Backbone:
């Protein structure tokens, strides 16, 4: 009989999971924001090591570039995004994404687009620290600490 250890089982289960990461998770890591840094960094580490498939919505990339460029420089923004794209996939946005997002009853249109991106890329979870922004959820929404605990 094949013996499977708990760590092997967890690795295999996580490998099947895909998540869409809200921009606040990326910013927690890049800006060393406490007390969120550790959980957010663990999320990204799980993606970087290939245990989890991670997506970032296309519109988050442009926002991230703008924020880094504003604080540092265009070359720093380009370098940070290039590094992230080594392990994160881009969830595309097209007319269908926008049409569906317009029909969601969300207070913030950007959050509606984010939710539709998660749905369209077939993410198992949308990971954010702002759970209330994604109501009603079309994809389960978790904080990093909740996702990590579930693994």
Residues:
């Amino acid at each position: 009989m094949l013996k499977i250890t708990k760590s092997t089982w967890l690795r295999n289960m996580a490998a099947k999971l895909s998540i869409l990461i809200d921009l606040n998770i990326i910013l927690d890591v890049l800006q060393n924001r406490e007390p969120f840094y550790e959980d957010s960094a663990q999320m990204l580490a799980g993606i970087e090591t290939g245990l989890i498939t991670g997506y970032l919505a296309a519109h988050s990339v442009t926002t991230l570039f703008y924020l880094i460029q504003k604080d540092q420089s265009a070359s720093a923004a380009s370098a940070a995004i290039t590094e992230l794209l080594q392990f994160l996939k881009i969830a595309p946005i097209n007319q269908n994404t926008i049409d569906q997002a317009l029909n969601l009853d969300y207070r913030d249109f950007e959050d509606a687009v984010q939710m539709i991106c998660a749905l369209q890329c077939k993410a198992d979870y949308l990971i954010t620290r702002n759970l209330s922004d994604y109501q009603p959820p079309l994809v389960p929404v978790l904080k990093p600490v909740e996702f990590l605990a579930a693994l």
